[in-house]
């Protein structure tokens, strides 16, 4: 059958292949920016499944851009902590509820199909629609634009010329294979049986727990209605067989330090915890996001969250390029930034998996002693919580290993770090909601006095605002005392990206200098304005 050629009177759309949470998030963000999008998926429109169930604080911050964070937060069960047990002893806990620099100090436990329903509804509100049972079967990336061949359920085919193409089609990505990109990996596969079902027993209702002993490893997460996600390590398994309730119950009896009876399972599968990363996240005008770009152990529930980070990182850059507010070279940073982040997650989840599977008494004793020591000193909360919540993701160009992403001591934020987000008390110009707010479609300049504000400071801020706005919003955040820990005691201008990460820090409120800085970090240079410089700073 000869494929029909797609024709349109408008510009070529961005084609998103894959309509899981990651694909729909990036489609929503682009549509929100008035970018034409088509999103296709080989699967039926509704599939009851529940692979990814945990959304961490940073993901909720990011999906606030597309207007679904609050509805998701109301839909799911809030997880206040993640606790670790060795035998019958509680080693320590990561307490999300103690996070003070995010409006979402909790994890969110929700079946994936419910998460998808919320995002799909928003997609429709923004003018989009998932084209279900429509598979990408071929991709020609040799010309100036990618051309995809799509096949529908009835066998009819269509050739689509896209302005850009985004592969969000999972670990077996057809997009990745068509582009000839290798899926490189290391380490042996680790098998986990996972399922959802009712649990009866004295189990924590607001915590996710990991239990380790000589009999295996098990993780439990509450959905809030008496149903739990249950996951346990299994040595071998036939992929064609669904793990039965008896397998999970045996592991509950053997591993979990609470009496728990499992009811009828709603859904089960076996998950192979592979470590794989695509050799490239970009090929010309094609990008890979989510599981199409990287997969790793399910420990810590990082997969969907890492994919959402991919989606927002790419969406603001691609949307800005198409709207003319961001220089096209910014797209070159996607691979480096998200590759480093994925490799960090892969390392951390692999370490957690291996620690949970140790059996030798000496190694178990060492692991337990290290976790207890970290709990007693506060290091567990201070260092591990930002990693699991993904609040510590850092896009600085010199970050070469995971240690560089950890804030070992309090110091002013630097380039690449996430700007903290606080819940406003409403006293800053009557503003309500997460604060300080930054523009979600262009770079924002935040001014910080580091101390007292006076007439001269206000004049400098006003002049800078006149010189840079409306192309780049300028906001004075000096009245917000919580930022002192993060911005320091000296005056500065902080350039913040649309995704809330810091692009540059300048010690002077100088408009001419900031124009140079904005151009360097990728902001499209606006026309000159009458006020080119703020008044000179006092000596």
UniProtKB/TrEMBL annotation:
<dbReference type="InterPro" id="IPR002938">
    <property type="entry name" value="FAD-bd"/>
</dbReference>
<dbReference type="InterPro" id="IPR050641">
    <property type="entry name" value="RIFMO-like"/>
</dbReference>
<dbReference type="Pfam" id="PF01494">
    <property type="entry name" value="FAD_binding_3"/>
</dbReference>
<dbReference type="InterPro" id="IPR036188">
    <property type="entry name" value="FAD/NAD-bd_sf"/>
</dbReference>
<keyword id="KW-0503">Monooxygenase</keyword>
<feature type="domain" description="FAD-binding">
    <location>
        <begin position="13"/>
        <end position="345"/>
    </location>
</feature>
<keyword id="KW-0285">Flavoprotein</keyword>
<keyword id="KW-0560">Oxidoreductase</keyword>
<dbReference type="GO" id="GO:0071949">
    <property type="term" value="F:FAD binding"/>
</dbReference>
<keyword id="KW-0274">FAD</keyword>
<dbReference type="GO" id="GO:0016709">
    <property type="term" value="F:oxidoreductase activity, acting on paired donors, with incorporation or reduction of molecular oxygen, NAD(P)H as one donor, and incorporation of one atom of oxygen"/>
</dbReference>
<protein>
    <submittedName>
        <fullName>Monooxygenase, FAD-binding</fullName>
    </submittedName>
</protein>
